[in-house]
Specification:
Length: 280
């Protein structure tokens, strides 16, 4: 366990500057436009109040007052950009977390594979690091929402604002419900599928590293087979069809079983490849 934790620390330490950069980009892209938009709107309303002109409401915000949900709705474009940047960076690093060991300085992978620890700990450490990065950015986003709420309350005078539930503020922004689903089942399903996707990619990379040129073909076939296995129950059993032989709940259970099998096979094959096939 101690060696596994050291490997996890090493992987996190190698990504720390990129992680800090992603957090900084997210902070700047989300807070600066919000400050600008709120300052502009407050100035406009104060000028309208001096002229005696009423401020009409909108279909989404009929009261005409400002709420945090209003701020999230009107700055959602600036939320989407850093979220897409973070997703792209982490998706790329799922590959780089392995390949940088082969293409890095002095073929670092040779020393990594010769460490006095079970090789599956290397696999688990890289998987754990990816999960730490994902949930670390998710936690940072939650903290950032609290900061943005504070900014909103500091800029908007009390007579111009109205309270809005935190859930409504998240729903008002099209990007956030994808990251922060409203119920636990959606959260587990969404991030569970993400973990399975990472496992499939990890195993495909190890297949390619084990068999080199022909391994590229094997890796592609493996990923295609996993996607086909995932889609087969949905396509063949008629998940959304009213004439399906099975109930939707039963098809969902079958799909969960297929996902569990894909994850188990990916982990087993990944462990076997890194222990038996990849040599130094």
């Amino acid at each position: 366990m101690n060696r596994y934790l050291k490997l996890v620390h090493m992987e996190i330490h190698r990504f720390r500057y990129v992680m800090a950069g992603l957090m900084a980009v997210t902070l700047l892209f989300q807070t600066v436009p919000m400050i600008f938009k709120l300052s502009q709107e407050v100035s406009f309303r104060q000028e309208a109040a001096l002229k005696g002109a009423p401020v009409p409401g909108t279909p989404f915000f009929p009261s005409g007052k400002l709420s945090f949900a209003w701020a999230m709705f009107n700055t959602q474009f600036w939320f989407i950009i850093p979220i897409l940047i973070c997703i792209a960076a982490l998706a790329l690093y799922v590959f780089l977390i392995w390949y940088r060991d082969w293409i890095g300085r002095s073929t670092f992978v040779y020393r990594l594979l010769m460490l006095p620890t079970e090789r599956r700990n290397i696999y688990l450490a890289k998987l754990t690091a990816i999960l730490v990065f994902v949930f670390g950015l998710l936690a940072f986003q939650l903290l950032l929402l609290q900061l943005e709420t504070l900014i909103f309350n500091m800029i908007v005078p009390a007579d111009m604002r109205e309270a809005s539930p935190f859930a409504d503020a998240i729903s008002a922004n099209q990007a956030l419900p994808v990251l922060l689903p409203h119920n636990l089942a959606q959260f587990l399903m969404g991030y569970g599928l993400g973990v399975i996707a990472v496992l499939i990619v990890f195993t495909a990379i190890l297949i390619e590293r084990s068999y080199r040129r022909i391994g590229i073909l094997y890796a592609i076939l493996y990923m295609v087979a996993c996607v086909a296995a995932f889609l087969m129950p949905l396509l063949t059993l008629g998940f959304e069809s009213p004439f399906a032989y099975l109930y939707p709940g039963e098809i969902f259970v079958i799909e969960l079983a297929v996902c569990a099998i894909i994850a188990a096979v990916s982990i087993w094959l990944g462990f076997r490849l890194i222990a038996k096939k990849i040599t130094v």
